[in-house]
Design brief:
The chain has about 850 residues and is α/β, with parallel strands linked by helices. The chain contains 31 helices and 16 strands. Strand 1 and strand 2 (about 90-95) form a beta hairpin.
């Protein structure tokens, strides 16, 4: 919008507002006031007329009344009609009015007036009149509107004059001033300025003129400077051209030198890598031959060969470090990205260094912090960094602890920044030496190098690996107070094995039979009764099961075969379930295999300990069959095609490929064997035995239940005196282990009362409350011996006459023997059922003595011994 219209628009708005006000407010109000005055005047006239009619009404002079009123109506046309009534309502005027209705209908603006006729306080009647204001109001409205139009014309004329004054006095000078400003922008300083009076506009003109003068002076000075700058720039162009020629020459020389240096560094790295491989080949042969020679060497030779082996392994570690740093510098080291369990990074290092820490008397700890259990990244390089740090910590720590820790530093959706630490209580490092530790071939000082050895490459490799993983590395230490070496890595949230949640508890057993009938499990359980119960349940759904009596055997079996799932007892001798799980997780290919804890401890801290050790889930003892099946269904994969199973793992043993040998020789696991109604009826009478619950735990098989009760009576007959002795000697830890075992087995045979008493005793022993433990033992001592005695009195097996072996077994008996040997050769725990199903045939072929030996070997899960006995039979 132009300035002119910006100045005139307010005037136009004011004019429009004035016209609207007159039309909407002044004109209606004026007409209302005129009408009101007219009505007031006619009403007063009517009252005067009524007053003059009072004597006539009192004298009943109707003729005079009619004459006067007729004359009034004829004289003033605005009076449309009159009506006079007396106090009794009689109409005195007009006596008749036949055309009143038509006249009233023809008029428009009609008003009704009324006046009372009084004589003193007495009412003589009333006079009503109808007046027509149409012509009067029309004349008045025309007069008022003409007056308004005249006023609007005057206002418009005033607005036009005011607009001309604005144009002449304000807009025209401002327009000339704007034109001068435009010419000034174009560099013209002589444009004429408008003349103005002494007002704000005059000040604006004078200030603009002063500004123009100043700009003209500055422009002249600036032009002079530009001329000088152009002259200097011309000289610089000549100098820069000469300088660029020199820089180009030097750059070419530096590029050639850089290429030569990179080529030399690459050649060095390639040479080191090749030499490392060349050296490792004969070195591996030396270490292998040394290992073989130690088995046949004398004591002195074995000691020397041990030193050779240690020196060779040390040399091999140095060569590996040189190879890694060479790969990193040559840009050939590639990170592998995969999902892994946090324990795969921490427990692997723990398992490698645990024995060395134990020999030095150090405690090796794991602290996973709040880091998610499943991560995505290069687990091998994370292990390598932790192993470098932890190996140094063991070297420089004489007493105390070494802790492997992880900390979550940043969490942005799936992107994680994790800090891995190794803390020790060793000799510490001076602050001035920390900055140099992460340089190649650098150690803390010469003396420690001579004492502890090392190349100084481990720390720099860890730093380079951390940088490749998007992090950094560093150390914090104080002399005599230990050290903390750390590195960070940017990882992603990982995903564990895809679990299955389909199916309800009631059909979990059926689902397992369909989906996982070809799955192979490892059961790690040291208690014979708990093994029997678990095997009955697992075989009941067609699962193949290998058995380990402790953690060491479980670890060895895991090295030999890759199972679909592991059921791991927590408390086992030699190596407990937690340590065994950590060691198994450290094995190649075991990052995602489900491992389920089996324990009678179902507290939150026990579940947390199992989870931190790398276990996926928890199955409480005594085992509830449907809950066990539901948990297995959740973690076991669906049955794979035969060809997929054939290629399942490179570590699988040849015998694992054996299909079910002569399945017709093995009865269905759910089939009852040697049912004894009398025995069951007697067992029901035992107060502390729930036979129905016990049978449910073994799938309703009475023979299996009888065997488990026999084992219970044989294993726990002396528990009460042993517990009393241990508590009396204040060996509460050993007593707690015994009470814990009793708790689990009592539940698995259906003795709920003994299970409850043993659980109470176990809790007191776990808390170290000796007095409460003695009280709980007294309650247990009152009932457990009676249960054991009752079982022993009926379940003791009477010796039977020996059966000699037949000279020529039948074809059916030979097939049974071959089927049993195939199961034993495959390590299949269903060999127990095969032996029980064909007991008479096996005893007839083997004879009582050999049959008993084979039976005992199978019950001990010593399948190689049982197979050997069958192969060596006469």
């Amino acid at each position: 919008m132009s300035l002119r219209w910006k100045l005139i628009l307010p005037l136009l708005c004011a004019l429009g507002l004035a016209g609207a006000s007159m039309e909407l407010y002044w004109l209606p109000r004026s007409l209302e006031r005129i009408e009101s005055n007219r009505m007031l005047s006619m009403h007063r006239q009517l009252e005067t007329l009524a007053e003059s009619m009072t004597p006539m009404v009192m004298g009943q002079q109707l003729d005079i009344i009619n004459e006067n009123l007729d004359a009034l109506l004829a004289k003033d046309p605005d009076w449309l009609s009159l009506r006079l009534v007396d106090e009794r309502g009689r109409q005195l005027y007009p006596l008749w009015s036949p055309d009143a209705a038509s006249e009233v209908a023809a008029v428009r603006d009609i008003r009704t007036l009324k006046a009372d006729l009084r004589f003193g306080r007495h009412s003589l009647g009333a006079m009503e009149a109808q007046v027509d204001l149409t012509s009067y109001l029309s004349e008045q409205r025309s007069d008022v509107r003409n007056t308004g139009l005249a006023m609007m014309a005057l206002l418009l004329a005033a607005m036009v004059v005011l607009a001309l004054l604005v144009e002449w006095l304000i807009h025209r000078p401002l327009r000339r001033l704007a034109r001068a400003a435009s010419q000034l922008a174009e560099g013209k300083y002589d444009a004429p300025l408008p003349s103005a009076d002494k007002d704000v506009l005059d000040e604006l003109v004078r200030d603009f003129g002063a500004m123009r003068t100043t700009l003209e002076e500055q422009h002249g000075a600036l032009k002079h400077e530009i001329d000088e700058h152009r002259q200097a720039e011309a000289e610089l162009v000549l100098y820069r051209k000469h300088l660029e020629e020199q820089v180009a020459s030097r750059t070419a020389e530096l590029a050639a030198a850089k290429d030569a240096a990179e080529a030399a560094n690459l050649a060095k790295s390639s040479f080191l890598a090749n030499m490392s491989h060349e050296i490792r080949t004969p070195l591996n042969a030396i270490l292998g031959l040394t290992h073989l020679m130690r088995a046949e060497a004398t004591a002195a030779q074995a000691e020397r060969l041990g030193k050779v082996d240690a020196a060779g392994k040390h040399l091999l570690s140095i060569i590996n470090d040189i190879l890694d740093i060479s790969k990193i510098e040559a840009g050939k080291l590639q990170l592998e990205q995969s999902d892994f369990h946090l324990s795969a990074a921490l427990d692997h290092v723990y398992s490698l260094l645990a024995e060395s820490a134990r020999l030095k008397g150090l405690e090796l700890r794991i602290d996973p912090g709040e880091v998610p259990v499943w991560l995505h990244g290069d687990v091998m390089r994370l292990r390598q960094g932790l192993l470098n740090y932890a190996g140094n910590a063991l070297k420089f720590t004489e007493t105390g602890t070494v802790t492997l820790a992880a900390r979550l530093m940043d969490d942005q959706d799936d992107a994680l920044l994790v800090r891995f630490e190794v803390r020790d209580t060793g000799i510490g490092i001076a602050p001035e030496r920390l900055a140099t530790l992460f340089q190649p071939f650098t150690q803390a000082d010469a003396s420690t190098t001579r004492k502890h050895g090392g190349t100084g490459l481990g720390l720099v490799i860890t730093r380079r690996l951390a940088e490749l993983m998007g992090g950094e590395a560093g150390a914090e230490s104080s002399p005599g107070q230990g050290s903390t070496f750390w590195f960070t890595a940017r990882l992603q949230r990982g995903q564990g094995p895809q679990v299955r949640t389909e199916g309800h508890l009631e059909d979990a057993e059926h689902q397992l039979r369909i989906r996982s009938r070809r799955s192979r499990l490892l059961l790690a359980e040291d208690n014979a009764i708990n093994r029997e119960v678990a095997l009955e349940l697992l075989h009941g759904v067609g699962l193949a099961v290998d058995v380990a009596e402790d953690g060491i055997v479980a670890l060895e079996r895991a090295r030999q075969h890759r199972y679909d799932l592991v059921l791991m007892d927590i408390q086992m001798p030699n190596l407990d379930g937690l340590e065994a799980t950590r060691a198994i997780r450290a094995l190649s290919g075991w990052d995602s295999i489900p491992i389920l804890a089996m324990t009678a401890n179902a507290f939150d801290e026990d579940r947390l300990a199992a989870q931190l050790a790398g276990m996926n889930d928890h199955v409480s003892k005594p085992v509830d069959p449907q809950q066990l099946y539901a948990t297995l269904l959740k973690w076991l994969p669906s049955a794979a095609p035969d060809e997929d199973r054939a290629d399942a793992s490179d570590n699988a043993r040849p015998e694992d490929a054996v299909s079910d040998p002569d399945a017709s020789m093995v009865p269905p696991v759910s089939a009852p064997i040697d049912d004894d109604p009398d025995l069951m009826a007697w067992l029901v009478t035992i107060p502390d035995l729930d036979v129905e619950a016990g049978l449910r735990l073994v799938g309703g098989k009475q023979e299996s239940y009888r065997r488990i009760l026999q084992l219970f009576a044989q294993s726990h007959g002396e528990d009460v005196p042993r517990l009393g002795l241990l508590i009396g000697q204040n060996k509460l830890v050993e007593a707690e282990k015994l009470a814990h075992a009793l708790k689990g087995t009592a539940g698995n045979v259906g003795s709920r009362s003994i299970h409850s008493l043993a659980a109470t005793l176990d809790g007191h022993l776990k808390r170290g409350d000796r007095d409460a433990s003695e009280t709980a033992l007294a309650a247990l001592a009152d009932r457990l011996p009676r249960l054991v005695e009752a079982l022993q009195s009926r379940l003791a097996m009477a010796p039977s006459a020996p059966v000699p072996a037949v000279s020529e077994p039948s074809a059916d008996q030979r097939r049974r023997i071959e089927s049993l040997m195939a199961l034993l050769d495959a390590g299949d725990s269903r060999a127990r059922h095969a032996l029980a199903a064909g007991r008479d045939d096996f005893e007839a072929v083997l004879g009582s003595e050999l049959h008993r030996a084979v039976e005992l070997a199978i019950q001990r899960f010593d399948y190689p011994e049982a197979l050997h006995l069958l192969q060596e039979r006469p």
